[in-house]
Amino acid sequence: MKILVPVDGSEHSLHAVRHALVLHDSLKAVPELVLLNVQRSVAQGNVKLLIDAQTIDDYQREQGMAALETARHVLDQRGIAYQYHLSVGHPAEAIAQYAAKHGVSHIVIGAHGEGGLGKRLLGSIVAQVLETTALPVTVVR
Q: Taking the model in full, what pTM does it have?
């Protein structure tokens, strides 16, 4: 079993990581845990004319690693093996594509992202993930 946990650095995504740990501990066969962070592409329009591709890639990698930091720390503290992946694109599409391409059997996702607009955006991302994948999805508050 492979469990995918999309992580955006919010408290809700950390709740999803903790719930994935509960699943991990309750299963007879130890599942693979994969953390996924999806950065929205900033290389649109005239941005590519002003900032070189390497700088954009470095920025998105830095932001993705920052978003994964707390979740990775929680798993490291427990001694749980996991993988992580960084992606760029529309979050719901990237989550569904990653799950399909990498043989994911279950997705555990936080109900909301960071506060304000992010909360509404990730809420809609959760809905889009539910619409675009036939996999079991656990939404954690």
A: 0.87
